[in-house]
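I am still getting used to backbone structure tokens and would like to learn alongside you. Label the sequence line and the structure token line clearly, so we can match residues to local backbone shapes. Go ahead whenever you are ready, and we will take it from there:
>
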Amino acid sequence: MSRNALSSLRTMTAALALAGLAHHAAAQGISDGEVRIGVLTDLSGVYSDASGRGSVLAAQMAIDDFVAQHKPAFKVKLLSADMQLKPDIGASIARTWFDREGVDMVTDIPSSAVTLAVMNLAVEKNKVVIPVGPASLRITNDDCNATTMHWAYDEYSQGQGTARAITESGKKSWFFIEADYAGGKALRAGFEEAIKAAGGTVVGSARHALGAGDFSSQIVQAQASKADVIGMANAAGDSANLLKQSAEFGVTPRQVIAASLTHITDVHALGLKAAKGLFLTDGFYWDRNDASRAWSQRFFEQRKKMPTMVQAGTYSAVLHYLKGVQAAGTDEAKATVAAMKKLPVNDVFAENGRVREDGRMVHDMYLFEVKAPEESKKPWDYYKLKAVIPAEKAFRPIEQSTCKLVKKQG
């Protein structure tokens, strides 16, 4: 069966299933007559450029588009707050939102540690959480729950693109410079799994604190290792600063630098002269097709920057959540999640994506190489597409899941 035919069959099956679901849930209705969405983000730290106010804008764009296209019978309200990358602060904000503000769904959360704290609280309160910014596989494995879904990417998807491609090209030995917190460890774990599967080895590592300004010690250790590849297991501002300082130390071209998570805003801040030749895996690129260009231009008009994977993913998560609420006829968490898992994810971020039973939203990912300055033909023209990684290969197979929601075959 062709991919288009399979997609059509899934859509028809979902429609039939949702008809019954909506009938069952309609009596519950919309609490307070209004669906409330909270964007819990980083407004002031190292992830503020890749997430932050851009994620808030993307969420509002999703609400506006949903209301314009689907004419819901309910109102939608958006809230946002700065979690300051601290689990206690993030959990406290979420608790206040759930208990006092009537928030039904929380999204973005660009920190694995904060996400794990919030999702545990949300399942207790019967609320939906859709993290977009964190990397940890724990979200849809050991710590999975019935009201959490993971959007955009994770540690496995990043490794399957960049790490596997570079290792299979013949560069077998790796040294990691990694952020010393849950997200950094998760990204390194995903890379290391892919490296070993492709016949490579990890010869050493050096850690740094979140938001570190000076990477000279770690870079010297990486150079001394004589590894073929220096892997960066960090993100956002840390990645940008590390790349800049690596260029100053003359790391390339003798050693290849591979990013576990670098956003287009990081490349923009660095400039193509410093970032050229960098390999990275991403779930979204503004210039990929007509739809992504049109949506990204709308985003750019307000933000004056092109959207990152996390920001476009937040748009997708909010839009699909609202479709789930409308299909279920209620904002009750479990009914909404059930509806979301039956509906295909088709929007500017993902084509024929789907939410698996473990809560992982699977979709195609893309391996890019950063262009040299002379290759760029227009503003923000930064990436060359090297490979499309199909959804079934981009994310860890469901058969390997440790999520208690997954029905084991036996």
Observations:
- Residues 14-27 have pLDDT under 50 and may be disordered.
- DSSP finds 14 helices and 13 strands in the chain.
- The longest helix spans residues 3-25.
- The first strand starts at residue 34 and ends at 41.
